[in-house]
Structure formats: C-alpha cells, structure tokens
Amino acid sequence: MRVFNFWQKWLVFFGIVSAMFGIFLMSPAMFNTDIKYISSAFWDSGVAPVEVKVFYNWVFGVYAAMEISWALFIVLVASYPFNRKEKWSWYCLFSCISVWFVIDTSFSLYCEFYVNAVNNFFFYIFLMLPLIFTKKEFF
After folding, report:
1. Which residues, 6 or more positions from 46, have their beta carbon under 8 angstroms from its beta carbon?
2. What are the tens digits of pLDDT across the range 29-73?
3. What is the Cα–Cα distance from 108 to 6, expressed in whole angstroms?
4. Among the listed residues 136, 123, 93, 112, the one whose alpha carbon sits nearest the alpha carbon of residue 14
5. Model-level pTM?
6. What is the Cα–Cα distance from 123 to 18, expressed in whole angstroms?
7. How many helices (H) and strands (E) does the chain have?
8. CA-to-CA distance for 101 and 27, rounded, in angstroms?
9. Spatial separation of the C-alpha atoms in residues 83 and 89, rounded to whole Å
C-alpha cells in the first residue's frame, strides 16, 4: 500500500510540475522572445526570422494550453479514479501517455528536433514508472 501511495503522489506531483512548465511555456508568446535551443534546431542563425514570430508565438500559446490541460488531466485522473484503483484509470493513463510519446517523438525525430525527442524520453520514463510499479494493484 505504501508503494502505491508513493507512485500515486508521484503522478500528481509530476502533473503539477508539468502544468507549471506549461505556464512557463507561455512566456515566449507573451514577451515575444526566442528560445535559443528551439530556434537553433530550425534556423542556422539560431534566431527565428521576423516573419515567423507571430506564428512562433501562436504555436507556443497553443502548446502551453495543451501542456496545461494534459497536466490537469493527469492530476485529476491520478487523484481520484487512479487513487481508488479503478482499472480504467490505469489503462487511460497508460494509453494516453504512450500515444503522446509515440506521436510527439516520431515527429520530433522526423523534423530532426532531437532535443525534444530526448526530453520526451525522460518525460515518458517519469510518467511510466508509476504505472509499471502500480500495475499489480490494478490487475
């Protein structure tokens, strides 16, 4: 039981940290700034062209909204149905996290945006560990 509580709280904590990261992601859009490691993946100069700035800021805004809502989803599922050991919540988290990982990482690799692919790998591990270590509680 103690192990389950640790991993359940881990999921909630990681969801909260992900939501804060999403809020942080809004700052480039709000302050019209470049993020060097992203710009350098797509432009040799390391700076997005002026013509791209509006699109760039919009993408960050949309990405931030997606990150925050995805994090809230993890927090709510982990806090209630997962905590009550409802089997569907384990499947839900496992499938959503895996689908995100495969699609996001595939596109990152295709676009040669390796920094994001590596980040995804670590996020995936941090999110899958609780599911791996709690599986016996559900099945």
Report:
1. 34, 36, 39, 40
2. 677 666 676 778 788 888 878 777 777 778 888 889 999 999 999
3. 32
4. 123
5. 0.85
6. 9
7. 5, 0
8. 24
9. 9
Residue 26 in contact with residue 61, Cβ under 8 Å?
A: yes
Mean pLDDT, residues 79-94? 97
- 8 Å CB contact between 78 and 15: yes
Token pair listed for 100:
């995100």
Quickly tell me which residue has 């595939």 as its tokens.
106
Q: What residues does each domain of the chain span? A: 2-138
How would you class 77 by CB atoms within 10 Å of its CB: exposed for 0-12, middle for 13-18, buried for 19 or more?
buried
Instruction: Report the C-alpha gap between 12 and 14 in whole angstroms.
Output: 5
For residue 25 the two structure tokens come to 């992601």
- Residue 110: Cβ-neighbour burial (10 angstroms; 0-12, 13-18, 19+): exposed
